[in-house]
Known about the structure:
Structural class: mainly alpha
Helix content: over 70%
Strand content: under 5%
Mean pLDDT: 78
Distance between the termini: 10 Å
Order of helices and strands: HHHHHHHHHHHHHHHHHH
Shape: globular
Oligomer: single chain
Number of helices: 18
Low-confidence stretches: 1-16
Amino acid sequence: MTSDTVLGTGRDRVAPVVGYLELLRQREFAGLYASFSLTAAAGTLSGFALGSLVQGRTGSPLLTALSMYGSSFAAVLGATTLMSVADGSRPRRALVALHGLSLAALAAQAVPGLPLAARFGLLLVVGFFQALGTGARMGLLAEIVPAAGYAPARSLMNVTAGGASVLGFALGGALLAVLSPYQVFALAGVLAAAATAVVAVTVRERSVRAARRPGLRETWRGNAKLLGRPGRRALLLNLWVPNGLVVGCLALFLPYAPGRAGLLLAAGSAGMLLGDLTVGRLLDAGRRARWAFGLRLLLAAPFLLLALRPPLVVALLAVGVAGIGFAATLPLQEHLLALTPGAERGQVQGVESAGRLTWQGIGAALAGALAQAVEPRWAIALLAAVSLAVTAASRRAVRREAAAVTAGGA
Length: 410
């Protein structure tokens, strides 16, 4: 199978290779790409600022981890209530409105006297609207780019998000040395406002989708259909659980190495950037599928070294190598897309993203709870070991589903 092969359409067909530059020449994709990048940068800055604020006020590893990744818990609320808006007949209008609501919640974090309870409440609001926005954005992406351009498009967006995270975490530590957390929140709000404006200006409205009334009932109907297939459940399990447990490892960097957390987070983001660039752009679909299992192992295994408290250089290298493993999501997402009807792609991708975010929140909560009982380094090692166990135990089901997808396209 070559990089030109398109899956899941009854037989293999060859499509032209779509490169990054070709994608960026499309005005709508360029707008989605730019807004996604700005949103990622804003989220990184605000998360680091809130984590530092909570760590300084409480000294609690659990609350610090939840402050950085706790918004992920609200993603499941979006996935189970209103995710059908992602496939509504006015996706651009929905996306702009969701951006605006997230911006308002983020701007409120810049208020200095806000109690921590209110900050955590706003965190959940942001997570809820971001989950819906992701579904709408990815539904539009599947319409804007050709089928052969989907994997490169997701790869480019992931690469840029990784770059934004690298800069965000590296700059976050530097900015907090000269600015207050509230000023960093304000800077993140400026980036979020720019993201909203870019979407409004560049993305055109679409009304070609099936006329469905989005709401609770439609969301439940779509989710029941999505989760009713064992193969899809196996793919979702591997997109959610190993990833979420490793994010729990990342959430403990502040208590693990308070003065070096920004560097460790930046190293992980740099690895993610390299992995998405290599797997999404340089590997064809067949090799992406073959490498998926090894990448999921790579995602967790290097974190076991942190239990030994290695020198900083070794720790940075281990975290960076582990970050490459996040690229395992690309082949799994390709398989999921091949199983999804076009009219449901927004909701399915939104649920996949929301579940991944939710498990990141679960991973952060588990990590923080473990770190209350044992040293952070042992909590990191335990989460990594469980991630490896889940990946190994579910390998057969994932391979079976991958084979079914390939057979459907043969």
